[in-house]
Design the sequence.
């Protein structure tokens, strides 16, 4: 038994994951497209952050050389 843990949220989470698994099996594109878009969004944001950090570091090193 789970003790003090409320069973309602556990049942809801299990049901949600079961529905998600069924949708992923029957219609993989329904899961794949949003995950692909999310991955592209994260990649874009990380790339912009990398570019800004690179520019900031380059400016700092140019300022130290003077």
Sequence:
């Amino acid at each position: 038994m789970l003790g003090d843990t409320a069973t309602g949220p556990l049942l809801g989470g299990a049901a949600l994951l079961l529905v998600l698994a069924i949708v992923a099996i029957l219609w993989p594109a329904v899961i794949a497209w949003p995950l692909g878009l999310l991955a592209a969004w994260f990649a874009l944001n990380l790339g912009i952050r990398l570019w800004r950090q690179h520019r900031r570091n380059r400016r700092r090193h140019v300022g130290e050389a003077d």
About this structure: The longest helix spans residues 28-65. The two ends are 69 Å apart (CA to CA). DSSP finds two helices and no strands in the chain. Residues 24 and 53 are 38 Å apart (CA to CA).
